[in-house]
């Protein structure tokens, strides 16, 4: 019977293998996306820029460099209008307004707009879904973090492994 350490070690190597496979897949997909004979629209650059902009703005909010956006419930008559406003703000790189509308929409429709811990994911999903509607003739390709360093993955897995082992009861 395997003990918890052997199980974690197996999981560790499986995740490293998965990360390496993902990197190879991305490496193989990018040339296909650049081929003009195939109808693929690569939106990776736009999404990376949007991800970075949202992340920087939210970091500035947390550190106090930016003021908290004011929630405006009156400007959002329905869910579709909220999504359109958020998309327009993301598309024009006005991240403070995108977060303002996202938080306003969440206050009106909490089940549809996530929570404060996944604002970037919700905003990127809205961005993707809206772009998908405008690019109906093309297949969309979006890749964030194209080549994560294996050393970074190993370090994160090591930290996670330590947390798991420290929370495991001694009886296992």
Which descriptors would you attach to this protein?
Fry_C; two-stranded parallel ribbon; globular; 172 residues; 6 helices; Protein furry C-terminal domain-containing protein
Q: Order of helices and strands, N to C? A: HEHHHHEH
As an assembly, this protein is: single chain
N→C terminal distance: 11 Å
Reported for the largest beta sheet, the result is: 2 strands, parallel
Radius of gyration, whole Å: 20 Å
Overall domain count: 2
Overview of the molecule:
This is Protein furry C-terminal domain-containing protein. InterPro entries: Fry_C. Pfam families: Fry_C. Strands 1-2 form a two-stranded parallel ribbon. It is about 65% helix and about 5% strand. The protein is globular. It contains 6 helices and 2 strands, in the order αβααααβα. It folds into 2 domains: about 1-45 and about 145-170; about 45-140, no CATH class. The protein has helices at about 5-35, 45-65, 80-90, 95-110, 120-135, 150-165, and strands spanning about 40, 140. With about 170 residues, it is mainly α.
What is the fold's blueprint, element by element?
Elements: H1 4-34, E1 40-42, H2 44-63, H3 79-91, H4 95-108, H5 119-134, E2 139-141, H6 150-167
Helix pairs in contact: 1-6, 2-5, 3-4, 3-5
Organism: Rotaria socialis
Protein name: Protein furry C-terminal domain-containing protein
Pfam families: Fry_C
């Amino acid at each position: 019977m395997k003990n918890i350490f052997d199980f974690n070690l197996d999981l560790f190597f499986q995740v490293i293998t998965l990360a390496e496979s993902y990197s190879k897949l991305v490496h193989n997909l990018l040339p296909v996306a650049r081929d003009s004979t195939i109808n693929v629209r690569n939106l990776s650059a736009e999404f990376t820029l949007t991800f970075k902009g949202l992340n920087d703005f939210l970091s500035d909010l947390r550190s106090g460099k930016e003021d908290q956006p004011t929630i405006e419930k009156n400007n959002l008559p329905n869910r579709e209008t909220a999504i359109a406003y958020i998309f327009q703000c993301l598309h024009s790189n006005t991240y403070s307004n995108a977060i303002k509308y996202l938080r306003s929409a969440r206050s009106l429709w909490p089940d549809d707009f996530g929570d404060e811990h996944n604002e970037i994911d919700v905003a990127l999903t809205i961005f993707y879904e809206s772009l998908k509607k405008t690019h109906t003739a093309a297949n969309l390709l979006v890749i964030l973090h194209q080549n994560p360093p294996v050393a970074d993955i190993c370090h994160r897995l090591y930290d996670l492994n330590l947390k798991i082992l420290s929370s495991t009861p001694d009886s296992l």
